[in-house]
Amino acid sequence: MSDLTHFDEQGRAAMVDVSAKAETARVAVARGAVVMAPATLARIEQGQIGKGDVLGIARLAGIMAAKRTSDLIPLCHPLMLSKVTVDLSPLPPDRVEIEALVKLTGRTGVEMEALTAVTVAALTVYDMCKAIDRGMRIEAVRLVHKSGGKSGLYEAE
User: Fold this and answer.
1) Does the model's pTM come out above 0.70?
2) In which pathway is this protein known to take part (predicted)?
3) What are the pLDDT digits (tens) for 109-142?
């Protein structure tokens, strides 16, 4: 049985043992979007959402989520992240684009942390605006870049 598997010798789910892997610089970038009514985006940009600064709060939520990914995703390793950025960009007429970058030097990648950051930031935008726009959609959450580790470089098309 491979050393890098989510199953133990009895076939039960287990955390992958990464102790024999080399520590390397690892980076992951994920992106996604929240699509909404144009009027909702206008209110976000004008600071007219009753719950506060939507983009600022969503940014913070995404950063916090990246740091807590192992608490949310079963069998994810708890990681000491060296950098997390979450950028939210309003794109008129009807969307907020979200990008998260996560870095560390370690034995396992940070793809899940980047994806979690984008997803939680998007959910935060939804939560803060749902009273005025229940038709919002979270779309296209995906990994767009990964570097470091044994599998090397990945760039989405």
Assistant:
1) yes
2) Cofactor biosynthesis; molybdopterin biosynthesis
3) 899 999 999 999 999 999 999 999 999 999 999 9
The answer to whether 125 and 57 are in contact (CB under 8 A) is: no
Residue 94 annotated in active site: no
Residue boundaries of the structural domains of the chain: 24-155
CA–CA separation, 81 and 38 (whole Å):
36
Place of tokens 């807590």: 68
Parallel, antiparallel, or unpaired: how do β-strands 83-91 and 95-106 relate?
Answer: antiparallel
The tokens describing 141, both together, are: 């959450």
Q: Are 26 and 20 in contact (CB under 8 A)?
A: no
**Sign of torsion over alpha carbons 53, 57, 59, 60:** positive
Q: With beta carbons less than 8 A apart as the criterion, state whether 118 and 31 touch.
A: yes
Residues that constitute the known binding site for substrate: 75-77, 112-113
Residue whose C-alpha is closest to residue 85's, from 103, 70, 110 = 103
Q: What type of residue is 3?
A: D
To which CATH superfamily is domain 24-155 assigned?
Molybdopterin cofactor biosynthesis C (MoaC) domain (3.30.70.640)
128 token code pair: 């803060």
Residue with tokens 């983009």: 55
